[in-house]
Write a structure and sequence with these properties.
- By secondary structure, the protein is mostly helical.
- The chain is built from 15 helices and five strands.
């Protein structure tokens, strides 16, 4: 005869009073009869069966004194709002999960704040970096693209030597990284083509389609489901940015002059950028399965993605140089003159390059930090949250440009609709972050 023993612990919240030990042993032998098949037919054959018993033993609350005040406690038991399964307390487990969720929420808020600050610095320093390199913006773009490959792989090597990056991370399939590089290169090419025709005020307005594309792509490819307040919050954020940028400018007239084709091409550029961010999120989710709950290092994604982007940029150089008005045959001389201005070497080549190389270097460093923080925020939250943080930095940047900054001359005036747009934008962020009572965060997480 075999028997199984289960110990059920009752833990009511009662005052600590002496309890007399029971006179009878509260143990009951309950036979567990085998279930019969649904068709009530006996199986043919010889069965060596054994009677199995479940032994259910009622005990008093563990950890509560069973004598007077001086009696010793038997041990720590479950709390008044918890129960035990074997040796594990379910109530304590729930508290631990809630604590982890709170810590994760704090981490996301801090990462979003850092991303916003670096996003503002990125926009401001890009404007400042173009002061000495105003004749060589294409050189600055290529310096950032190819410089990142060198820096990212150097950091990746150091992290690999330190044991942070493992061989399993480096052996991940490279096809997704190839797709990331292709999407980033095509997004840069289409964005440059449309940006050369569209006005500066219309581009931030069209960029709000980036958030729409991210929501649609995350629903299609990640199986995400968003609450009504999250969709409303994203809509208000986009409206707030549009009001802030468009107020006091002839944006509508500029869009009509540019034509519908260039506006659609800029929207396609933001579609490619949104697909790039969603694909990176897919890479992180796939890595968690391949690494058995682990996480791929950020510099693995950044390094291989930037390397493939640089490869496709090289293939597109004839097309890109033509967009910037530089004949491909004159591209080597253009890059040489841009390098001389960047280094601010004495002579006629560096005339008008005051502020170099400090301002361009500051932009490259801050832009790199912004990209890393944006990818980290995407990793711990979602592509939509990272997009909201980046969008929020647009409004703050508009205000910063109204301050007296060096090298920029006269500060720009604050748009008439800035306050109204900023209020709508902040309301959108608060509505997005608001969680209705009784709802769970599963609505905005990938479905399994």
């Amino acid at each position: 005869m075999t028997s199984c023993c289960r110990r059920l612990t009752a833990s009511p919240t009662v005052p600590n009073i002496p309890v007399q030990p029971p006179k009878l042993k509260p143990t009951v032998e309950i036979p567990v009869f085998p279930t019969r098949p649904y068709n009530n037919q006996r199986s043919v054959g010889i069965a060596l069966g054994s009677r199995k018993y479940w032994r259910v033993e009622a005990v008093g609350p563990v950890g509560r004194s069973e004598g007077g005040d001086g009696a010793k406690k038997a041990g720590a038991g479950p709390g008044p709002c918890s129960y035990s399964v074997g040796d594990q307390r379910v109530g304590d487990r729930t508290v631990e999960i809630e604590r982890r969720e709170r810590n994760r929420a704090v981490e996301v808020v801090v990462a979003a704040g850092v991303t916003v600050v670096l996003g503002v610095g990125n926009r401001v320093l890009y404007k400042l970096a173009l002061v000495p390199l105003k004749r060589y913006p294409f050189f600055l773009a290529q310096l950032a693209t190819f410089g990142y490959v060198l820096v990212y792989f150097s950091v990746l090597y150091l992290r690999y030597r330190a044991g942070i990056v493992t061989d399993e991370m480096l052996s991940m399939p490279k096809v997704p990284f190839l797709a990331v590089g292709l999407l980033e290169a095509l997004a840069a090419a289409t964005g440059m083509a449309a940006g050369a025709i569209l006005s500066g005020a219309s581009i931030p307005i069209l960029s709000q389609t980036f958030l729409v594309w991210q929501i649609l792509l995350s629903i299609i490819f990640l199986g995400r489901r968003y609450r009504v307040n999250q969709l409303l919050g994203c809509f208000l954020v986009a409206v707030g940015v549009i009001i802030t940028v468009a107020s006091g400018s002839s944006t509508g007239h500029s869009l009509n002059e540019a034509g519908i084709f260039w506006s659609l091409l800029m929207i396609v550029s933001f579609l490619l950028q949104a697909a790039d961010t969603v694909l990176k999120e897919v890479i992180f989710l796939d890595a968690a399965q391949r690494l058995k709950g682990g996480s791929v290092d950020l510099f693995v994604v950044n390094s291989y993605g930037s390397a493939f982007q640089a490869l496709f940029i090289c293939l597109l150089l004839p097309f890109l140089s033509k967009l910037w008005g530089i004949p491909f045959s004159q591209l080597p001389n253009y890059l040489k003159d841009g390098a001389a201005c960047f280094l601010n070497i004495g002579g006629t080549l560096s005339s008008g390059c005051d502020g170099a190389p400090l301002l361009p270097l500051l932009f490259v460093i801050v832009n790199m930090g912004f990209n890393i923080s944006l990818l980290h925020l995407l990793k711990i939250s979602s592509a939509v949250v990272s997009s909201l943080a980046s969008t929020f930095s647009v409004t703050i940047s508009i205000y910063v440009f109204t301050l007296p900054l060096p090298y920029l001359g006269v500060a720009s005036s604050l748009p008439s609709g800035f306050v109204a747009g900023a209020i709508i934008l902040v309301m959108g962020l608060l509505i997005y972050a608001w969680s209705p009572s009784g709802s769970t965060s599963a609505l905005s997480t990938p479905s399994s």
